[in-house]
Fold this sequence. Notes:
- The protein is of the alpha/beta class.
- Helix content is 30%, strand content 21%.
- The chain has helices at residues 26-47, 62-68, 96-103, 124-134, 162-167, 194-197, 210-220, 232-235, and strands at residues 10-14, 18-22, 51-55, 78-82, 84-86, 113-114, 141-144, 172-176, 188-192, 202-208, 241-246.
- It has an 8-stranded mixed sheet with strand order 1-2-11-10-7-3-4-6, sandwiched between helices.
- A hairpin with a 3-residue loop joins strand 1 (10-14) and strand 2.
- The longest helix is centred in the N-terminal third of the chain and has 22 residues, at 26-47.
Amino acid sequence: MTGRGAAHVGDTLLDGRVQFEAFQDATQWAWAAAVSVSAALKRDLEQQPRARLLLSGGNTPGAAYEALSRAPIEWERVDVALVDERWLLPDDVDSNARLVRESLLRNHAARARFEAITRAGRSIEEAVTTANMHARQAAGVVVLGMGDDGHTASLFPGMRGLDDAFASTRPYVAVDARGCPGAEQWPRRISLTPAGIAPAHSRFLLIRGLHKRALLERVLAGDDPAEFPVRIAFLTPGAPLRVLWSP
Protein backbone atom coordinates (compact mmCIF):
# COMPACT_ATOMS: atom_id res chain seq x y z
CA MET A 1 0.00 0.00 0.00
CA THR A 2 1.17 3.51 -0.72
CA GLY A 3 0.43 6.93 0.72
CA ARG A 4 -2.55 7.52 -1.54
CA GLY A 5 -4.70 8.26 1.53
CA ALA A 6 -2.26 10.54 3.31
CA ALA A 7 -3.53 14.00 2.28
CA HIS A 8 -5.77 15.54 4.94
CA VAL A 9 -8.11 18.46 4.69
CA GLY A 10 -7.81 18.85 8.45
CA ASP A 11 -7.69 17.08 11.81
CA THR A 12 -9.47 17.99 15.02
CA LEU A 13 -9.01 16.47 18.48
CA LEU A 14 -12.14 16.75 20.60
CA ASP A 15 -11.70 16.51 24.42
CA GLY A 16 -9.45 13.47 24.15
CA ARG A 17 -12.29 11.13 23.22
CA VAL A 18 -12.65 11.77 19.48
CA GLN A 19 -10.18 12.53 16.70
CA PHE A 20 -11.82 13.85 13.54
CA GLU A 21 -9.93 13.48 10.26
CA ALA A 22 -11.23 14.98 7.01
CA PHE A 23 -10.11 13.97 3.50
CA GLN A 24 -10.75 15.83 0.28
CA ASP A 25 -12.31 12.98 -1.68
CA ALA A 26 -13.57 9.41 -1.42
CA THR A 27 -10.40 7.87 -2.84
CA GLN A 28 -8.11 9.48 -0.28
CA TRP A 29 -10.63 8.62 2.46
CA ALA A 30 -10.71 4.92 1.47
CA TRP A 31 -6.93 4.61 1.36
CA ALA A 32 -6.51 6.52 4.63
CA ALA A 33 -8.94 4.14 6.31
CA ALA A 34 -7.10 1.15 4.88
CA VAL A 35 -3.71 2.44 6.02
CA SER A 36 -4.99 3.22 9.52
CA VAL A 37 -6.75 -0.12 10.03
CA SER A 38 -3.88 -2.16 8.59
CA ALA A 39 -1.39 -0.33 10.84
CA ALA A 40 -3.49 -1.20 13.89
CA LEU A 41 -3.67 -4.85 12.82
CA LYS A 42 0.07 -4.95 12.19
CA ARG A 43 0.74 -3.70 15.71
CA ASP A 44 -1.43 -6.51 17.08
CA LEU A 45 0.37 -9.11 14.99
CA GLU A 46 3.71 -7.90 16.34
CA GLN A 47 2.52 -8.53 19.89
CA GLN A 48 0.35 -11.66 19.70
CA PRO A 49 -0.28 -14.75 17.55
CA ARG A 50 -3.55 -13.50 16.02
CA ALA A 51 -5.39 -10.22 15.50
CA ARG A 52 -9.16 -9.75 15.53
CA LEU A 53 -10.98 -7.21 13.35
CA LEU A 54 -14.68 -6.32 13.53
CA LEU A 55 -16.29 -4.71 10.49
CA SER A 56 -19.57 -2.92 9.86
CA GLY A 57 -21.81 -3.29 6.85
CA GLY A 58 -23.92 -0.71 5.06
CA ASN A 59 -23.37 1.31 1.93
CA THR A 60 -20.36 3.36 3.04
CA PRO A 61 -17.32 1.17 3.78
CA GLY A 62 -16.99 -1.04 0.70
CA ALA A 63 -14.31 1.07 -0.99
CA ALA A 64 -12.29 1.23 2.21
CA TYR A 65 -12.48 -2.55 2.59
CA GLU A 66 -11.35 -3.05 -1.01
CA ALA A 67 -8.32 -0.84 -0.32
CA LEU A 68 -7.66 -2.70 2.94
CA SER A 69 -7.68 -6.03 1.08
CA ARG A 70 -4.40 -4.96 -0.58
CA ALA A 71 -2.57 -4.37 2.69
CA PRO A 72 0.58 -6.55 2.81
CA ILE A 73 0.11 -7.94 6.31
CA GLU A 74 -0.07 -11.54 7.55
CA TRP A 75 -3.76 -11.98 6.87
CA GLU A 76 -3.62 -15.70 7.64
CA ARG A 77 -3.25 -14.61 11.28
CA VAL A 78 -6.25 -12.25 11.20
CA ASP A 79 -9.78 -13.19 12.31
CA VAL A 80 -12.42 -11.01 10.64
CA ALA A 81 -15.87 -10.82 12.20
CA LEU A 82 -18.92 -8.56 12.01
CA VAL A 83 -20.10 -5.69 14.16
CA ASP A 84 -23.68 -6.75 13.42
CA GLU A 85 -25.79 -8.77 11.02
CA ARG A 86 -29.32 -8.80 9.70
CA TRP A 87 -31.18 -12.05 10.28
CA LEU A 88 -30.25 -13.27 6.82
CA LEU A 89 -28.14 -16.10 5.51
CA PRO A 90 -24.52 -15.04 4.96
CA ASP A 91 -24.77 -15.35 1.17
CA ASP A 92 -27.88 -13.16 0.98
CA VAL A 93 -27.24 -10.11 -1.19
CA ASP A 94 -28.32 -7.81 1.68
CA SER A 95 -26.21 -9.44 4.39
CA ASN A 96 -23.18 -7.79 5.91
CA ALA A 97 -21.30 -11.05 5.46
CA ARG A 98 -21.77 -10.81 1.70
CA LEU A 99 -20.43 -7.24 1.68
CA VAL A 100 -17.30 -8.25 3.59
CA ARG A 101 -16.69 -11.28 1.39
CA GLU A 102 -17.00 -9.29 -1.83
CA SER A 103 -15.07 -6.20 -0.76
CA LEU A 104 -12.43 -7.34 1.76
CA LEU A 105 -11.81 -11.09 1.41
CA ARG A 106 -9.86 -10.80 -1.81
CA ASN A 107 -6.30 -9.94 -2.85
CA HIS A 108 -4.00 -10.34 0.20
CA ALA A 109 -6.95 -10.46 2.60
CA ALA A 110 -8.33 -13.61 0.99
CA ARG A 111 -6.13 -15.46 3.49
CA ALA A 112 -7.99 -14.06 6.52
CA ARG A 113 -10.30 -16.25 8.62
CA PHE A 114 -13.87 -14.95 8.39
CA GLU A 115 -16.61 -15.58 10.95
CA ALA A 116 -20.14 -15.12 9.64
CA ILE A 117 -22.69 -14.72 12.44
CA THR A 118 -25.62 -16.49 10.78
CA ARG A 119 -25.74 -19.96 9.29
CA ALA A 120 -28.41 -22.17 7.75
CA GLY A 121 -30.16 -24.25 10.41
CA ARG A 122 -28.96 -22.04 13.27
CA SER A 123 -31.53 -20.18 15.41
CA ILE A 124 -30.96 -16.55 16.29
CA GLU A 125 -30.26 -17.56 19.90
CA GLU A 126 -27.65 -20.07 18.71
CA ALA A 127 -26.13 -17.42 16.46
CA VAL A 128 -25.77 -15.03 19.39
CA THR A 129 -24.21 -17.75 21.54
CA THR A 130 -21.69 -18.59 18.82
CA ALA A 131 -20.84 -14.91 18.26
CA ASN A 132 -20.18 -14.50 21.98
CA MET A 133 -18.01 -17.61 22.04
CA HIS A 134 -15.87 -16.17 19.24
CA ALA A 135 -15.76 -12.84 21.09
CA ARG A 136 -13.87 -14.46 23.97
CA GLN A 137 -10.94 -13.44 21.83
CA ALA A 138 -11.47 -9.72 22.27
CA ALA A 139 -11.34 -7.60 19.14
CA GLY A 140 -8.37 -5.25 18.92
CA VAL A 141 -9.77 -3.20 16.03
CA VAL A 142 -13.42 -2.20 15.53
CA VAL A 143 -14.71 -0.35 12.45
CA LEU A 144 -18.09 1.27 13.01
CA GLY A 145 -20.56 3.12 10.81
CA MET A 146 -23.30 5.66 11.47
CA GLY A 147 -26.78 5.66 9.95
CA ASP A 148 -28.78 8.73 9.02
CA ASP A 149 -30.70 8.30 12.29
CA GLY A 150 -27.54 8.12 14.39
CA HIS A 151 -27.56 4.36 14.85
CA THR A 152 -24.44 2.25 14.94
CA ALA A 153 -24.15 -1.52 14.66
CA SER A 154 -27.83 -2.57 14.95
CA LEU A 155 -28.63 -0.28 17.87
CA PHE A 156 -31.34 2.13 16.73
CA PRO A 157 -32.93 5.18 18.40
CA GLY A 158 -36.25 4.23 19.99
CA MET A 159 -35.61 0.49 19.66
CA ARG A 160 -37.27 -1.73 22.23
CA GLY A 161 -34.69 -3.19 24.56
CA LEU A 162 -32.11 -0.54 23.71
CA ASP A 163 -31.24 0.15 27.35
CA ASP A 164 -30.82 -3.58 27.96
CA ALA A 165 -28.43 -3.80 25.00
CA PHE A 166 -26.42 -0.86 26.34
CA ALA A 167 -26.19 -2.50 29.78
CA SER A 168 -25.47 -6.04 28.56
CA THR A 169 -22.26 -7.67 29.73
CA ARG A 170 -22.25 -9.83 26.58
CA PRO A 171 -20.46 -8.62 23.44
CA TYR A 172 -23.43 -9.56 21.20
CA VAL A 173 -27.20 -9.58 21.68
CA ALA A 174 -30.23 -10.26 19.50
CA VAL A 175 -32.31 -7.14 18.88
CA ASP A 176 -35.84 -6.36 17.73
CA ALA A 177 -35.86 -3.15 15.70
CA ARG A 178 -39.50 -3.26 14.61
CA GLY A 179 -40.80 0.25 14.06
CA CYS A 180 -37.34 1.77 13.63
CA PRO A 181 -37.11 3.34 10.14
CA GLY A 182 -33.36 2.82 9.98
CA ALA A 183 -33.79 -0.94 10.25
CA GLU A 184 -35.80 -0.94 7.01
CA GLN A 185 -37.22 -4.38 6.22
CA TRP A 186 -34.77 -6.23 8.50
CA PRO A 187 -35.92 -5.73 12.12
CA ARG A 188 -34.43 -8.97 13.47
CA ARG A 189 -30.72 -8.53 13.93
CA ILE A 190 -27.68 -9.42 16.01
CA SER A 191 -25.62 -6.51 17.29
CA LEU A 192 -22.40 -5.68 19.04
CA THR A 193 -22.89 -3.96 22.42
CA PRO A 194 -20.73 -1.49 24.35
CA ALA A 195 -19.26 -4.52 26.15
CA GLY A 196 -18.05 -5.76 22.77
CA ILE A 197 -16.53 -2.41 21.86
CA ALA A 198 -14.78 -1.75 25.17
CA PRO A 199 -11.74 -4.06 24.80
CA ALA A 200 -10.68 -2.70 21.40
CA HIS A 201 -7.52 -0.57 21.40
CA SER A 202 -8.48 0.97 18.03
CA ARG A 203 -11.95 2.32 17.24
CA PHE A 204 -12.77 3.80 13.84
CA LEU A 205 -15.92 5.48 12.56
CA LEU A 206 -16.09 5.70 8.76
CA ILE A 207 -18.56 8.25 7.39
CA ARG A 208 -19.04 10.21 4.19
CA GLY A 209 -21.18 13.09 2.99
CA LEU A 210 -22.15 16.55 4.22
CA HIS A 211 -25.27 15.22 5.92
CA LYS A 212 -23.23 12.79 8.00
CA ARG A 213 -20.80 15.54 9.02
CA ALA A 214 -23.67 17.73 10.19
CA LEU A 215 -25.16 14.78 12.06
CA LEU A 216 -21.80 14.05 13.66
CA GLU A 217 -21.73 17.57 15.06
CA ARG A 218 -25.10 16.92 16.72
CA VAL A 219 -23.88 13.58 18.02
CA LEU A 220 -20.74 15.09 19.55
CA ALA A 221 -22.75 17.90 21.17
CA GLY A 222 -24.53 15.54 23.58
CA ASP A 223 -24.01 12.50 25.74
CA ASP A 224 -27.30 10.55 25.63
CA PRO A 225 -26.81 7.33 23.66
CA ALA A 226 -30.56 6.71 23.59
CA GLU A 227 -30.90 9.76 21.31
CA PHE A 228 -28.02 8.75 19.05
CA PRO A 229 -26.72 5.24 19.80
CA VAL A 230 -23.52 5.96 17.85
CA ARG A 231 -22.44 7.89 20.94
CA ILE A 232 -21.40 4.57 22.49
CA ALA A 233 -18.43 4.70 20.12
CA PHE A 234 -16.83 7.43 22.25
CA LEU A 235 -18.76 7.19 25.54
CA THR A 236 -17.77 3.57 26.15
CA PRO A 237 -14.64 3.69 28.33
CA GLY A 238 -11.44 2.68 26.60
CA ALA A 239 -9.75 3.78 23.42
CA PRO A 240 -10.50 7.13 21.77
CA LEU A 241 -12.56 7.15 18.58
CA ARG A 242 -11.01 8.09 15.23
CA VAL A 243 -13.56 9.50 12.79
CA LEU A 244 -12.57 9.47 9.11
CA TRP A 245 -14.75 11.60 6.86
CA SER A 246 -14.89 12.80 3.27
CA PRO A 247 -17.54 14.62 1.23
